[in-house]
Write a structure and sequence with these properties.
It contains 5 helices and 14 strands. With about 240 residues, the protein is α+β, with helices and mostly antiparallel strands. The longest helix has 18 residues. Keywords: ATP-binding, Hydrolase, Nucleotide-binding.
Length: about 240
């Protein structure tokens, strides 16, 4: 497995932050995910560890005991430098429906003028690309999706909205994402996803993981409304495709 120059520093009493080179690259994210698998398979017997990957970092949190930073830092460096075989990791693509009606895409017209693209062109570009889940945070189930076409890059809004609707699909810089609940937010909203991204009542509240792929596809308002009903009664199934490793 490829190794990078990593840095390790304390991140509170119960956690440590491991950082890879400060670049947004799928190869770095894959290296982090492979290291996590190695830690789980060969290094951690204690189930009290929580491992949180994002972009070019990995946060290790022990839920109960304070961490002896100096000793554990050396151990982590040894584990990372050890000769490791790459572990098979199932790669998933989630296809998520989005309604781009102007009722939902409240910034579509503004972005169209800003980018010099028609609204139809924006929707086409947004839906024909596959995005990588580089992190989940800010809100439970909020995915930071990288890989957006350069022509769709727009800055965050200068003044965040006090309330962004649950399911809103937004653009900000080099990223796109879905608001999993009503929330303040400064991303440019172009549509709404009919699939709930986070459900605390489920055993796995968020079905997507860091490292997965996401692709959007457009739906009409009637299909959006149907998905909402199916979701409420628990019969909607998200489309999942297993990709070649």
């Amino acid at each position: 497995m490829t190794t990078y120059d990593i840095s390790i520093r304390p991140f509170g009493i119960h956690s440590i932050l491991v950082e890879w080179p400060n670049r947004v690259e799928e190869a770095i994210l894959e290296n982090i995910l492979q290291f996590i698998q190695h830690l789980k398979n060969h290094c951690f017997e204690d189930e009290k560890w929580e491992l949180v990957p994002a972009y070019n970092s990995l946060t290790l949190i022990h839920r109960e005991k304070p961490i002896d930073f100096e000793n554990f830092k050396g151990q982590l460096l040894e584990w990372y430098a050890a000769d490791k075989k790459e572990v098979y990791r199932e790669k998933l693509l989630w296809r998520l429906p989005v309604c781009y009606d102007l009722e939902f895409g409240i910034d579509l017209k503004e972005i169209s003028g800003l980018l010099g693209l028609s609204m139809e062109e924006i929707i086409k570009l947004h839906t024909e690309h596959r995005y990588t889940v580089y992190g989940i945070g800010f809100l439970p189930g909020f995915m930071y999706l990288g890989g957006i076409p350069e022509v769709l890059e727009v800055p965050r809004k200068p003044t965040p909205r006090p309330k962004v609707r649950k399911g809103a699909v937004g653009l900000a810089g080099k990223q796109t994402g879905i608001y999993p609940q009503d929330s303040p937010g400064g991303w440019n909203i172009i549509g709404n996803c009919s699939v709930p991204m986070f459900d605390p009542k489920k055993s796995v509240p968020c079905f997507v993981n860091v490292g997965d792929k996401v692709q959007f596809y457009p739906i009409e308002r009637a299909e959006y409304d149907l998905h909402k009903i199916e979701g409420e009664v628990g019969i909607y199934t998200v489309e999942k495709i297993i990709l070649d490793a």
